[in-house]
């Protein structure tokens, strides 16, 4: 057998946004949470990680490139994922390339990994979730691992907790589990992305800078110092999880919105209850909440739900497409682009919502009238406070990309293209 072969696999994995939040670990090493959580998977055509993994007898060490820059794979989280996948690898034969790998050989073979996010890394858009889910999924395909997605999710969890939820599309529940070894702490799909396809999601990217307090540090400090976190995990979340499952199953938007907003606000209250307090939201985040709350109250029933992860970006979930166009008009009225910004780069993702809202350029934005709920108050405008908006929707889980031109590593050398 020629010893200069390179074998690759490329996968695409979505990011997810929790509607019932995960905040706090009961085991730091295995990444076991103090409560269940539920998330919605976002359409990978707008927000995803693409990862190519390669294996070759010519590779001298495990190496990884993230968004084109080489990063170390020596971190314990990467090592845990690699060890778990290698331990489950199966025999593999590629007759076309004359390659035969036995189960025991995988321990000796090094991997190259190249990963690319089509959205800002570490800015509160769950990039680590998509990243670790994609790494585990791609390695499992490359190494002929036969585990199902839930079992794989328990491995991805050891890279980044919320990564386990990115192994499915639609709405996903991360079951906290009871076992000490974490084998029962894994993700299950509640419903697929087609179950509630009326929903439209608009993300306001308030800041794409890296956050001051990482989620890992923030969680540890909350667990150690916040009494509210203890009460939340033991008393509040178990009831909310049941109510949220019911709301999703019945497509009951009023209940869904009420639970989503309340849980986001409580998570940020836990951050404030931490010593020293953690501030993930900023003034723009608060203005967006106020804008949505006013509109929902005026309508008498929720039109839009909001949720914020560990960062200032707003994830806004509209009950249907018509509501989403009205939401986008309101957002662009209050948070217009700076004068020299092209509307097409200010609203990205599913641009058809812009068209439905009758907005073709910045002139149309300038002509927007104040929403009815702010008619009696001075209409506040904050140009430049939002970096850009992403229009998206619930989406599918990970997929293997068979088109070799989409590979991020050269199939001959195993190095980045």
Automatic annotation (TrEMBL):
- Give me any GO biological process, just one: sterol biosynthetic process
Predominant localisation class: other
Q: Where does the source fall among the domains of life?
A: Eukaryota
Quote one Gene Ontology molecular function term.
Answer: ATP binding
The EC designation for this entry is 4.1.1.33
Keyword Nucleotide-binding listed? The answer is yes
- What does it catalyze? (R)-5-diphosphomevalonate + ATP = isopentenyl diphosphate + ADP + phosphate + CO2
Q: Which residues form the Diphosphomevalonate decarboxylase-like N-terminal domain?
A: 14-187
One of the Pfam families matching this protein, by short name: MDD_C
Mind listing the UniProt keywords for this protein, alphabetically? Answer: ATP-binding, Lipid biosynthesis, Lipid metabolism, Lyase, Nucleotide-binding, Peroxisome, Steroid biosynthesis, Steroid metabolism, Sterol biosynthesis, Sterol metabolism
| Residue ranges occupied by any Mvd1 C-terminal domain in the UniProt entry | 201-400
Q: Where in the cell is it found?
A: Peroxisome
Q: Indicate whether ATP-binding appears among the record's keywords.
A: yes
Please give the NCBIfam families that the UniProt record associates with this protein. mevDPdecarb
UniProt family annotation: Belongs to the diphosphomevalonate decarboxylase family.
What is this protein's record name? Answer: Diphosphomevalonate decarboxylase
- The organism named in the record is Rubroshorea leprosula
